[in-house]
Amino acid sequence: MFFGMTQLSFAQEIQSELIKPQVEQPKPQAPKPLFPAAKPGVARIFAIDEESLLNGRPRPVKGAAVHWITEGSGLVVHTLKNGSVKAPYDTTHSARFVITAPGYIPAVGYAINNTSLPVILFPQSRIKPILDSLGVAPDPSKTLVIGKILDRKLRPVKDIKIEGTFMSPFKSYYSIGSFGLYHRKAVKTGPQGDFLVSGFSNDGLEYILPSQEFDKVQLLDWPAAIYDFQKLPQIVSVTLQEGIKTTLETDVIDAMTGEAPAVQVRATVGGQRKVQVANEKGRLKLEQLELRGNMDLVELHADGYLKTWLNFPAHVSTLPPAINLFSRSHLQKIFSPIVYEIDFGKGFVFGNLNTEQFTTPIQIRIFRPDGVREKNVKILYFDEHNQLIKNLPYTHPKVQSFAVANLPEGEWHIVAVDMESRRGTAIQVVRVQNEAVSLVQF
Question: What is the pLDDT of residues 31-45, one digit of tens each?
Answer without folding.
Answer: 556 677 888 889 999
